[in-house]
Design goal:
Layout: E1 2-6, H1 11-22, E2 26-31, E3 44-47, H2 53-60, E4 65-68, H3 80-95, E5 99-103, E6 110-112, E7 115-116, H4 125-142, E8 149-154, E9 159-161, E10 170-173, E11 186-188, H5 189-202, E12 208-213
Parallel strand pairs: 1-2, 1-4, 2-3, 4-5, 5-8, 8-12, 9-11
Antiparallel strand pairs: 6-7, 10-12
Helix pairs in contact: 1-5, 2-3, 3-4
């Protein structure tokens, strides 16, 4: 499979690109600046702006699928998260690409029925702007009725951890996190990346949000 990975300079995007390469996929690492791409031997590097539909169309044309893991923790810059969702849904059909996996936020998952983690007492204010941006992106996908076969992936709401890939994770559709026997929702970034590439290969959650945990 020929996969364009947008956001490879980030923690999740870089892990996804390495996982896809390890499985023998052809990977194009897309970044605003080629100097931001590190430690991805075997990948093709492409310069593109996920906030510009023409640029995105150009860099993803000819690929079988796109996976994007875009974020920005700086105050006032989180508009790039929903904007990138809008641009991708516009640009991919123009480029002839039907498949998209969007790595989104975990705080939009529900702590209890109808109550998102970002709405619970004590949710850190420093993360609220980014969490709301991810919520907006999710709504953009759920309101979309075009040809792109999207999937929105959420990590656990808190515990996305360093660590090796175990392959022992569970994946499920919907808005509730995957909880382990201790009542915790957690996963390593390596296993999260593996689950995202699984979804590109298998297509189990087309036009759905899914989440991952142990």
């Amino acid at each position: 499979m020929k996969i364009a990975v947008i956001g490879v300079s980030g923690w999740v995007g870089g892990a996804v690109a390495r996982e896809a390469l390890s499985r023998g996929h052809s990977v194009t690492a897309v970044a605003p600046d080629a100097s931001q791409v590190h430690d991805l031997p075997g990948a093709t590097v492409a310069v593109g702006d996920v906030l510009d539909a023409d640029s995105t169309e150009r860099v993803v044309a000819g690929h079988d699928a796109v996976l994007t893991a875009v974020t920005d923790h700086r105050p006032g810059h989180t508009i790039i998260i929903p904007k990138s969702a809008e641009v991708l849904l516009e640009a991919l059909p123009r480029a002839g690409v039907e498949r998209l996996v969007f790595a989104g936020g975990g705080s939009t998952l529900e702590a209890s029925p109808g109550v998102r983690f970002l709405d619970t007492p004590g949710f850190p204010e420093s993360y609220r702007e980014e969490a709301l941006a991810h919520a907006e992106a999710l709504q953009i996908f759920r309101s979309y009725d075009g040809p792109v076969r999207w999937s929105y992936a959420s990590p656990p709401p808190v515990h996305l951890l360093d660590g090796r890939k175990s392959g022992a994770y569970r994946v499920q559709a919907g808005d509730r996190p995957v909880i382990d026997s201790h009542g915790e929702s957690r996963i390593t970034v390596s296993d999260y990346a593996s689950a995202l590439v699984d979804e590109l290969e298998r297509g189990n959650f087309i036009r759905q949000r899914f989440t991952v945990g142990y």
